[in-house]
Amino acid sequence: MKKLVAEFIGTLWLVLGGCGSAVLAAAFPELGIGFVGVSLAFGLTVVTMAYAIGHISGCHLNPAVSIGLWMGGRFDKKDLIPYIIAQVLGAIAGAGILYVIASGKSGFSIGGFAANGYAEHSPGGYSMVSALVTEIVMTFMFLMIILGATHSKAPKGFAGLAIGLGLVLIHLISIPVTNTSVNPARSTSQALFAGGWALSQLWLFWVAPIIGAIIAGVVYKYISPEVND
Questions:
Q1: At what angle do helices 184-194 and 204-223 cross, to 10 degrees?
Q2: What's the pLDDT tens digit per position in 150-187?
Q3: pLDDT digits 0-9 by tens, 127-157
Q4: Is 158 exposed, middle or buried (0-12, 13-18, 19+ CB in 10 A)?
Q5: Is-contact 15 183, C-beta < 8 A?
Q6: Contact 87, 63 (CB under 8 A)
Q7: CA atoms within 13 A on the CB side of 174
Q8: Which residues contact 139 (CB under 8 A, 6 or more apart)?
Q9: Residues 24, 29, 32, 34: is their CA dihedral positive or negative?
Q10: Which of 13, 18, 151, 222 has its CA 20 to 30 A from that of 160?
Q11: Could you give the residue ranges of the DSSP H alpha helices within the chain?
């Protein structure tokens, strides 16, 4: 239960910090942080939580990460569903807090609420195929970074930095395409509040990250199995 509480809090922070920066600060007149700022915000949520709860739950904060670690032989199958539930609930709680804050401004309109989308709901107007490929590849690379940085033979103490910076880079590449998911919990929380088109396109932001994570788990387990030799 302590691990699940940690995952709940960590995923709440990821959504509040990452999506919060997009909703509240990205386009602030003249002083907005833009794509670079939002990318940094997502990465910083992971870095901070990696050192805050990594020793408690592993700091997955993402159903795709849990699935990828399981496929890579690093995570117990019996914990998979409880982790995913805790992550989704934490993300929804984070989105709920963000909604309360954002709606306190006069003339507030929920708009896209940093939801993920493709075609006309892609920030750059990218197609469903572009979105699908982007999310699969970005999640694959994210899991490769995670599996490598947390390997028993990797330099100790630097995993949080490598993973957080990896997420920054992923956002710098893919925000224009999908608003960057690589995380079904983050996508679900924002879609629930945005509704409509966001819910109808949510399937892609579960399917693509999970595919990418599974491939990464299999590949990394093949090229660098967790053995003590």
A1: 170
A2: 998 888 889 999 999 999 999 999 999 999 999 999 99
A3: 999 999 999 999 999 999 999 999 988 888 8
A4: exposed
A5: no
A6: yes
A7: 29
A8: 64, 68, 182, 208, 209, 210, 211, 212, 213, 216
A9: positive
A10: 222
A11: 2-14, 20, 34-57, 63-71, 80-102, 128-149, 159-178, 184-194, 197-200, 204-223
Q: What region, left, alpha or beta, does residue 180 occupy, with left being phi > 0 and alpha being psi -120 to 50 degrees?
A: left
Domains and CATH numbers, the chain: 2-223 (1.20.1080.10)
Q: Which residue is it, tokens 């979105």?
A: 131
C-beta of residue 26 within 8 angstroms of C-beta of residue 51? no
Q: How far is CA 147 from CA 19, 22, 109, 140, 174, in A?
A: 25, 28, 40, 11, 21
Token pair, residue 2, equals: 């302590």
At 128, the amino acid letter reads: M
Residue 9's nearest CA partner among 104, 97, 72, 80 is 97
